Amino acid sequence: MLTENVALPASGRAAPPGSRFRPRLLQNLACPRQVGTVGLVLYALALGAGLGLATANWATRGRYPFGGVVLNAWTAWPKIGARDADPYVRAIHARTGEVPLALGEGLLLTALTDESGRRLDPSCRYRIAGATPPSRAWTLTVERRGRAKAEAAGEPAGETGMAPRTGFTSTEVLRDRDGRFAVTLSPTVQPGNWLPMPAGEGSIRLVLRLYDTPVAASTGVLEREGVPSITREDCP
């Protein structure tokens, strides 16, 4: 008579039929769960990296996010050239290649809107008039995102074949008897101090740089009447 030796567990009872296959079955069931968990982790990492790159690109596209002092349509940026400038400002300068004015060298003011708070429209005509805060010299320029691409595409430089003017300095602008000036920002030719509207596909920004000015160390002494006004005169 043949007998089969069956290994008994420690409890002394024989294992039920099919029990030896249960651990392997559980392992097979756990594999899809592990794969799903790994997939979720990879998806979360990819999503976080994408959001991080997108927000970093948005925050360093050339517009300073913090530290501005609003003066009518203008915003003064007294600390963009300081040693303790925030990381966003440093990243913007590294990306654009712009060299900021140091704290004792001057003051930067920018404007994206007119006196009524409306965004500067490239098809409109604006009058930038008044006086500037005391300084040894100043420059007024107009900038537009995408200008370099437009010039590289071969757009016409102007009626004279020369590159259009992009700004005025304190020594070349025409003034009245009181020492005040008026600059016309327009896409068409204007008499007097005409500043052509730049080509491109982005927003318009006016930039006023004051060099060797006493207000650079303390913007609290700046008055709203001490900066030029930006008035929309005509729109097609």
Order of helices and strands: HEEHEEEHEEEEE
Question: What name does the CATH topology of the largest domain carry?
Answer: Jelly Rolls
**C-alpha geometry:** elongated
Fraction of helical residues: 10-25%
Say how many strands there are. Answer: 10
The total count of helices amounts to 3
Category by helix and strand content = alpha+beta
What percentage of the residues does DSSP assign to strands (E)?
Answer: 15-25%
For the sheet with most strands, the description reads: 6 strands, antiparallel
CATH superfamily of the largest domain: Domain of unknown function DUF1214, C-terminal domain
CATH architecture of the largest domain: Sandwich
Order the strands across the largest sheet as they lie in space: 1-2-3-9-5-6
- Overall pLDDT: 74
Organism: Methylobacterium indicum
Pfam families: DUF1214
Keywords: Membrane, Transmembrane, Transmembrane helix
Protein name: Membrane protein
Task: Write a brief structural summary.
By secondary structure, this protein is an alpha+beta fold. The protein has 3 helices and 10 strands.
